[in-house]
Amino acid sequence: MIRIAAAALAATVALAPLAASAAAGDARQDRLQKRAEMMSKRFDKLDKNKDGAVDKTEMEAASARAFDKADTNKDGVIDETEAKAIRDRMAERRGDRPAKANRKDRLERADVDKDGKITRDEFAASATPWLMRADSDKDGKVTKAELDEYVGKLQKRADKADAKPAAQ
Length: 168
Ligand SMILES: [Ca+2]
Ligand SMILES: [Ca+2]
Ligand SMILES: [Ca+2]
Fold this sequence. Notes:
The chain folds into 2 domains: 1-55 and 141-168, no CATH class; 56-134, EF-hand (Recoverin, domain 1), CATH 1.10.238.10. It has helices at 2-46, 56-70, 80-94, 101-104, 106-110, 120-126, 144-163; strands at residues 53-54, 77-78, 118-119, 142-143. The mean pLDDT is 83. Helix content is 66%, strand content 5%. The protein has a two-stranded antiparallel ribbon. By secondary structure, the chain is mainly alpha-helical. GO terms for molecular function: calcium ion binding.
């Protein structure tokens, strides 16, 4: 009896790191799922002419709309107050999740000449859209199939990360 209990205990201990790793994997899959949904929603919104693809014109139009929305005093530049308003909005949308370092500085990076103001051109140039990473045939537009393929790639990468043994 005692031996069986000890064996069971040993098994539990041995399995513990695996369980922790599976939980981390679940959280990752969850995030990925949410990200895929978000990308799909954004895609549908960007595809104004509903031809099943998002092209450069549609992306530029989206960037122009975002700029117009951010430039609240309509002087043609996003100044520090307006940039702060964007950051606040982003922080609100993010909730209590920590900011991604690379995303936090997008506005700062956009201000190429560092005069504290982002012009329309600077803003457009900084908008290296996440979506273009899905453009696998590099024809300047992203079809829904390319987006699905891209999401599949992210999924595979996450699966691979899950398959790695948990760090000790
Ligand atoms: Ca389209
Ligand atoms: Ca302004
Ligand atoms: Ca394409």
